[in-house]
Specification:
By secondary structure, the chain is α+β, with helices and mostly antiparallel strands. It contains five helices and eight strands.
């Protein structure tokens, strides 16, 4: 198995792997656009496992700043972890994650984070690589149709005046648990800047999601 970066492979091969694994994928133009402004992505953008010319697994490494109990710190993140179904159980994703950890060590990052579901095989892979569960995050989903207004709650677009309340609720309900990005800017994200954030704390983290909750896992990279 050889480890390749995004610029070393055929973008169409990465597109096909993501489409198979996740049901959706970014084309090369979208990836170039995201890399141009999103500073979380590393120079390599992604690592791929290649064998006999086939792209069989992927990890997208990230780097972002969070505020931990010990202070502000840059941490690593793993996104888009997947492997081709024909090689499940053969260690391709495992070895690719270890290569990503090596990259984080080169960058001086002592924490690795990721988000995944507990009901997929990848959850066991992360546990075997030293990730540990940290804390639960509860979430709920309720269907809303356009024909009738939802009953029991009200939806509206967020305003700048809501930011202080959002930060206050966040600090209250995550105290002694995880903390998030240290950037507390007052800018509301626009539709072209939507992003998913992994909340992290302690030595090395990865968040695990189920249908009803999200819990954080931690792992030491060094």
């Amino acid at each position: 198995m050889k480890v390749r970066t995004h610029d070393e492979i055929d973008p169409l091969a990465a597109f096909r792997l993501n489409l198979l694994a996740f049901g959706s994928a970014w084309d090369d133009a979208r990836i170039r656009r995201e890399r141009s402004y999103d500073r979380r992505y590393l120079e390599e953008y992604a690592f791929y496992a290649q064998e006999r010319g086939r792209i069989l697994a992927q990890v997208v490494p990230l780097r972002f700043r969070v505020r931990l109990m010990t202070g502000v710190e840059d941490v690593g993140g793993l996104a888009g972890v997947c492997s081709h179904p024909t090689v499940w159980g053969r260690g391709f994703a495992h070895r690719l994650i270890e290569a990503t950890h090596d990259r984080f060590r080169d960058l001086g990052l002592r924490i690795a984070t990721l988000t995944t579901s507990r009901n997929i095989r990848g959850y066991g892979v992360y546990l075997k690589q030293g990730y540990v569960d940290l804390a639960p995050f509860w979430q709920g989903v309720r269907p809303v149709t356009r024909r009738r207004n939802p009953v029991g709650y009200r939806l509206r677009r967020a305003r700048r005046s809501d930011l202080s309340a959002i930060h206050r609720l966040y600090r209250t309900h995550t105290r002694r648990m995880l903390v998030g990005p240290s950037d507390r800017s007052n800018r509301l994200p626009g539709p072209s800047r939507r992003r998913t954030t992994t909340w992290t704390s302690i030595e090395s983290c990865s968040e695990m999601a189920t249908r009803s909750d999200i819990s954080a896992l931690a792992r030491v990279t060094g």
